[in-house]
Design goal:
104 residues; 2 strands; two-stranded antiparallel ribbon; Pemi-like Protein 1, Chain: D; single chain
């Protein structure tokens, strides 16, 4: 897809509607701009509240992917209450420290 745009006063350009729709760009979004090999590379960026930044760390996202894989594979357990879940975790830790196979 190629679009021709004109540079206006104060070096402003308008992103065509077709480009905005294809990339999901909305008013107020940020665009990261880099020059690479004589071309302009634009990437749409979304800002995240500081209080939510932990969720988007690489480590947390890896954990999210692992959890999704476990859910899809059926590696899940149901407990009647929080105390039962904690007891199961405690048992698993003790068994893994002793070298025994973990059962639930």
């Amino acid at each position: 897809m190629s679009e021709l745009v004109q540079v206006r006063k104060k070096a402003q350009i308008t992103l065509p509607l077709s480009v905005r729709r294809k990339l999901g760009i909305e008013e107020g979004d940020f665009v990261d701009m880099q020059v690479k090999n004589g071309e302009i590379d634009l990437k749409v960026k979304k800002l995240v509240d500081k209080e939510q930044a932990w969720f988007w760390t690489e480590r947390w996202q890896e954990g999210e992917k692992e959890a999704e894989e476990d859910i899809r594979a059926g590696r899940v357990y149901e407990f009647p209450d929080a105390d039962s879940a904690i007891a199961s975790l405690d048992k698993a830790v003790k068994e893994s420290q002793s070298g025994k196979k973990v059962r639930r």
